[in-house]
Amino acid sequence: MCPLPQVPSHTTKPPRAVFPDEVPSAGSLQSDFAQESIFAFPPNRDTLGGTSYLIVRNEGNILIDCPALDQTNQDFLRSHGGVRWLFLTHRGAIGKTAEFQQIFSCEVLIQEQEAYLLPGLTLTTFRQEFTLDGVAQVIWTPGHSPGSSCLYYSELGGILFSGRHLLPNQHGETVPLRTAKTFHWPRQIQSLRFLLENFTPETLRYICPGANTGFLRGKRFMDQAYQRLASLDLSALLRIQPF
């Protein structure tokens, strides 16, 4: 008797809380930050396996990069209050931005050099920095792409949503990764220096990367973020060739 053919499953996994078990640092104890207010979406084929994040806030939710445009994700976003801002960390994370803006009437935030990739959309652009409010700010970190940027969220000791500027490698180490498509490697290293000069171990505790999250082996963040970055040999990194 021949076995029945396997029917592929099209069930999409729902987003998962990033920090369900973390303890707020002393600097965050006075805030009303909820542990389960930041969620990571499953990797998105439209963005070459990119990971998107949602920050749920009374001031309006922030969606970082485009998740897959499927019903599970749409229902999840609606059930958590929709999307106020859609921030794109780099051009490779655009995905179905136009559809997300149409569905959720969200404001799309992108660094000015990559805005041309979204013709016909209503955009908010910035050059070097853009402050959403007292706890959320975007920072231009060029190198991976001309408009590569990160979002800094000051809760829980400081969280950097790094897009593809900083990623875990196969050993789970936090690094900038040089590829054949890297726009400008020395500028990417300079952007890393900028982060080290503008943050401290007390203000940068976590990094949530925009790809390679499988290398985190079940975690959805990299802890001791500043110390990890400070331990990198930037001169040696400059000599790395693309792979």
UniProtKB/TrEMBL annotation:
Pfam families for the chain: Lactamase_B
Coiled coil location: none
Taxonomic classification: Bacteria, Bacillati, Cyanobacteriota, Cyanophyceae, Nostocales
InterPro entries reported in the protein's UniProt record: Metallo-B-lactamas, RibonucZ/Hydroxyglut_hydro
Domain named Metallo-beta-lactamase: residues: 49-211
Protein name as annotated: MBL fold metallo-hydrolase
